[in-house]
Amino acid sequence: TQWVGIEGAPQTTYFTVDGSLLQDKVGLGLVMFSDVTGILNRTGFNANYAYKLNINSDNTLRFGISAGVLNNKIDFTKALVLDNTDPLLFSQEQTRTTVTADLGLTYIWKNLEVGFAVPQVIGNRVNYQNSLDLTGEYNLSRHYYGTLKYTVDVSRTKGMTAYPLVMIRSVQGAPLQYDINGVFDWDRFGWIGFTYHSDYAVAFSAGVRFRGLSVGYAHNIGTN
Question: Are 178 and 198 in contact (CB under 8 A)?
Answer without folding.
Answer: yes
